Amino acid sequence: MELITVNDNPYGQNVYFYFCKETGEGGVIDPGDCFEAIKKTIEDNKIKISAILLTHGHFDHTFRTNEVREFTNAPVYAHSAETELLQNPEYNRSGYRGLDVIVKPDKHFSDGDVFTFQNGETLKVIHTPGHTAGGVCYYDEKAGVIFTGDTLFRGTIGRTDMPTGNHAELIKSVKEKLFTLPENVTVYPGHEESSSIRHEKQYNRAV
Question: Average pLDDT for residues 194-207, to the nearest whole number?
Answer without folding.
Answer: 97
